[in-house]
Amino acid sequence: MAKINPFRIDIPQADLDDLHDRLARTRWPDDLPGVGWSYGVPTAYARELAEYWRTGYDWRRQEAALNEHPQFTTEIDGQNIHFLHVRSPEPDALPLVLTHGWPGSVAEFMTVIGPLTDPRAHGGDPADAFHLVAPSLPGFGFSGPTREAGWNLRRVARAWAELMRRLGYDRYGAQGGDTGSLVSPELGRVAPENVIGVHVNGSLGFPTFAPDETEGLTEAERARLAVYTDQDRSGYAMIQSTRPQTLAFGLHDSPAGQMAWIVEKFKEWTDPAHDLPDQAVDRDQMLTDVTLYWLTGTAGSSARLYKEGATDWGQPVGKSDVPTGVAVFPGDAGIRRVAEREHNVVHWSEFDRGGHFAAMEAPDLLVDDVRAFFRLVR
Q: How far is CA 91 from CA 22, 97, 131, in A?
């Protein structure tokens, strides 16, 4: 069996000094007056956030918080895989694979790890406990960079199945948002004899619609349908799915560029009730996410996941029999009749606060919904 190695984050001080130096020497672009965020991240907002990143943000504090959770690496299918493995104090806890997306990382799970693994200590029912396995996607963070082409969603799902096998788990659940909402159902298809249930937040793919399929949609569902088809929101995906290597030169060389590329998604995808991304999520947690991409040099390799998966977007797959739960937060594109095309949906929730980064924006709602769904299938 391939070796599983303990891992601890320990970023050299020289890398942090280089980050601060580059931020201090940023060459800032001009922008137009009065256009807000409609052309992208306003320079004034980016400058203020970058200055806080340089002088106020404490990476060592965030590094220590991440290191409070057991971490490991192992090689699967020729690729280094980094993962958190946090076992519950409850012996009968259900193993659960948590999968992040882009521009996410395992850092987005920091607030939900405690309640999910140890509900007794957080005012919950110990019968709802989970043993958590949270891998960094291949090409992301400490699982990056990828070294060869071909790391599409199905290959990631096969790697997760192998990871769970190595950890000795033969019966487990899967949960994910963003890319994780695609990998988790795929894991159910790859290992249906092992995956007892799949829970996702957000949508379940990139569907196409026949004209008659839009009849009878509620007003809320029509708004979500618009999210599927909004070209203004999809420019980043078109670039990452076609020319991720060209994009990488700018993001890999400029921390301000990497920050703006990610923070724009926090602006567009978080709860629309908030005007600024760091009103929807904790500023330090958002910058920890950005910093992980910068320090690991994975702007390009993470973007390659879009290139690898682009040919599968919108393509039909066979319907999965694995019980599936869906949590839809404001700004997400979940439509039940669409989800039911390819998934055995047995649980559906809609929320009026939170957003695409549910584990960061509304961890209490996400934890409660994950618990509620898995009570149906444990």
A: 48, 17, 9
Active site residues: 178, 306, 356
Q: pLDDT tens-digit profile of 44-82?
A: 999 999 999 999 999 999 999 999 999 999 999 999 999
Backbone angles phi, psi at 86, to 5 degrees: -115, 105
Burial class (CB in 10 A: 0-12, 13-18, 19+), 13: exposed
Amino acid identity, residue 247? L
- 25's CB contacts (< 8 A; 6+ apart) are none
Nearest CA to 135 out of 100, 177, 174 is that of 100
DSSP letter (8 states) at residue 214: G
**Under a CB-based contact definition with an 8 Å cutoff, are residues 338 and 207 in contact?**
yes
Q: How far apart are CA 356 and CA 4, in angstroms?
A: 32
Which residues, 6+ apart, have CB-to-CB distance to 186 below 8 Å? 153, 154, 156, 157
pLDDT at residue 326 greater than cutoff 80:
yes
Q: Judge if pTM exceeds 0.85.
A: yes
From residue 140, how far is each of 73, 106, 107, 143 by CA, in Å?
Answer: 13, 10, 12, 5
Peptide bond into 145 cis (omega under 30): yes
- Quickly tell me which residue has 């026949």 as its tokens: 210
What distance in Å separates the CA atoms of residue 63 and residue 10, rounded to the nearest whole number?
A: 8
Would you call 46 exposed, middle or buried from its count of C-beta atoms within 10 A (0-12, 13-18, 19+)? buried
